[in-house]
Write a structure and sequence with these properties.
With 571 residues, the protein is of the alpha/beta class. It has helices at residues 2-8, 20-45, 50-66, 78-88, 97-119, 131-154, 163-172, 179-198, 204-219, 247-279, 285-301, 311-319, 326-342, 351-363, 368-379, 381-386, 388-407, 409-429, 477-487, 507-521, 534-541, 555-564; strands at 73-75, 308-310, 433-439, 447-450, 463-468, 494-498, 526-530, 550-552. It has a six-stranded mixed beta sheet with strand order 4-3-5-6-7-8. Strand 5 (463-468), helix 19 and strand 6 (494-498) form a beta-alpha-beta unit. It is elongated and about 95 Å long. The relative contact order is 0.14.
């Protein structure tokens, strides 16, 4: 039983009593940020604001029990909230009971998929979306969220459609702007940005929310056209499955739940690993999947919405001195007290202030410098060194971003996954094949380096030394063969294929080497193989047509042999 407790509450292993004050202070700090942001993110998902608080409490408690991170804060997040809205919006119109029920059901299905993936040890799924594609997707998602919140800032009705349709609706409706609402929204932005800039330790979201509530109460702003959140149900949520849904509804959400898993898990795992590295402990990706799954199951069964790990709130948690998930349990306790006693306070919250909180929170996700760095790699000499594959990163990021902006969230996610898979296949089938040159001053075995990086060095006369920086298999065999043929120009008597960076080979590639040997011999060029690697040697020599390769222990020996025994011209 004690062992099971240690497994469930892993972040408390080796807990020190002196950490208690820091964890409680960190929990109080995170609570001040989480409550207003949870209310705001629920509006992004298209559900009542209190649903965000419903989701936060069980998610925090269950992740503390199962997760492997001592610092990660789990709760509603802007990216998965927007993804939830995009998914549920395809099944039901916003604002109705069915829409809310489906949002809750999506959290349950996300939880089931995550737990199943974790138990199946599929933690590597976080790598299925490349970082550039994920960056482009999140930038597009953030821009879409901002476009959806701007009308609330101006006090006008929001438009439907994609990012550009929403933006065009805003521009053509500016004449209907409510001046008082705009003033409230702009002042909220000033408070949020000002506190972030000059008093970063002060919870700007909570301060802006409290000031907005006070302004409505004192100045009766709701009577001057300022929209407010309105009645928020107090007390505990209804526990259990959402009503009015059948098994077909859950099955229809299973596939989209996998998309929520990919985005939420990638974001949460990145946050967990960042702070684990700083604190000197390890993160178990499979356990994180189970942790995210149980958090979503708890959130869904408590009438909540989808949740995932938050980088921004985890940063607040770590910055406030948290040492374990006791800080998360503190946040859960304070949020529960908010549900019981403080929901009435937030009923007077201006929607313009809530929109300002959302905009400031998600604007951090619009990582233009990252896109600029990818563009720099695409345009500068570095792209020339690493070939077309490196240039594809920028195009993949832009494609994923435009997919969200033009086709909306869910199709954008599909486009992002397809781009990631296409990029993976492209790079796999186009490995880096480079010609090598020897550094003349090296002692003992020669140091052979990329010729394109050392234009001052020259290859050995009549011998081309080639390295394939990948395994050799069916997907890249033709590309490697064509590249080596192209390097064997006039005057070449031998090609040395360096196998040091070729960890594996399949039968197709072995047959390719056999064919390449005969093709080169027809042009009076001998093929040598340097660096004998067990698996490669076994596959090569056990194929039906054993390639006529001469294998040498290193490149220097192979080059020497090529010079001493040049291929005789064929008649």
């Amino acid at each position: 039983m004690a062992h099971r407790a240690r497994v469930l509450f892993g972040s408390f292993a080796g807990y020190r009593s002196r950490w208690l004050r820091r964890d409680v202070v960190a929990g109080l700090t995170v609570w001040a940020v989480l409550v207003p942001e949870s209310l705001a993110y629920a509006t992004i998902a298209g559900v009542p604001p209190v649903v965000g608080l419903y989701a936060a409490v069980p998610a925090l408690v269950l992740y503390a029990m199962v997760g492997s991170s001592r610092h990660l804060v789990v709760g509603p997040m802007s990216s998965t909230a927007a993804l939830s809205a995009g998914i549920v919006g395809t099944f039901a119109a916003g604002g109705g009971d069915r829409y809310v029920a489906l949002s809750t059901a999506l959290a349950i299905m996300t939880g089931i998929v995550c737990v199943a993936a974790g138990l199946a040890r599929l933690g590597f799924l976080a790598s299925l979306i490349s970082e550039p594609v994920l960056k482009g997707f999140i930038v597009g998602l953030a821009l879409t969220i901002v476009a959806g919140q701007l009308p609330k800032l101006f006090g006008i009705e929001g438009g439907d459609g994609d990012f550009f349709a929403k933006l065009w609706h805003l521009l053509t409706s500016l004449g209907q702007t409510n001046g008082v609402t705009l003033a409230v929204g702009l002042l909220s932005l000033v408070v949020l940005l000002g506190l972030r800039r000059w008093l970063p330790l002060v919870p700007g979201s909570l301060v802006a929310v409290l000031l907005g509530i006070a302004a409505v109460a004192v100045l009766n702003l709701d009577q001057h056209g300022v929209a407010i959140v309105g009645p928020i149900q107090s007390g505990l949520p209804t526990l259990g499955l959402p009503s009015g849904l059948g098994m077909d509804d859950y099955l229809a959400l299973a596939g989209p739940a996998g998309g929520v898993l990919l985005i939420g898990f990638a974001e949460g795992l990145a946050a967990a690993k960042t702070y684990a590295a700083q604190a000197g402990y390890d993160i178990d990706a499979n356990r994180e999947l189970v942790g995210m799954g149980t958090a979503n199951l708890g959130a869904g069964l408590a009438s909540g919405m989808v949740v995932n790990g938050s980088l921004s709130k985890t940063a607040v948690n770590g910055g406030a001195g948290a040492r374990s998930q006791l800080s998360g349990l503190t946040v859960a306790t304070l949020t529960l007290l908010t549900l019981l006693f403080l929901t009435g306070l937030f009923e007077q919250l201006p929607e313009a202030t809530l929109a300002a909180v959302v905009i400031v929170a998600v604007v951090e996700l619009i990582d233009i410098p990252a896109l600029r760095r990818l563009y720099k790699v695409w345009t500068e000499r570095l792209a020339g060194i690493y070939g077309p594959a490196s240039r594809a990163d920028f195009l993949a990021a832009i494609t994923a971003m435009l997919g969200v902006l033009i086709f909306d969230t869910l199709p954008g996610l599909v486009i992002g996954i397809v781009v990631s898979m296409t990029l993976l296949l492209y790079r796999t089938s186009r490995p880096h094949v480079t010609q090598l040159v020897r550094i003349a001053d090296s002692d003992g075995p020669g140091l052979w380096v990329d010729a394109s990086r050392h234009p001052d060095l020259h290859p050995p006369r009549g011998v081309v030394v080639v390295r394939v920086e990948s395994g050799l298999f069916f997907a890249n065999a033709d590309h490697v063969r064509d590249h080596i043929r192209a390097l064997a120009t006039a005057g070449t008597s031998a090609v040395v294929l360096d196998g040091e960076t070729t960890p594996f080979i399949d039968v197709t590639a072995a047959h390719m080497l056999d064919q390449l040997t005969h093709d080169l011999a027809a042009h009076d060029v001998q093929l040598y193989f340097a660096h004998e690697i067990g698996q490669v040697r076994d596959v090569v020599h056990h194929t039906e047509n054993d390639p006529e390769l001469v294998i040498y222990p290193d490149i220097d020996t192979a080059v020497t042999a090529a010079r001493e025994h040049p291929q005789q011209p064929s008649n």
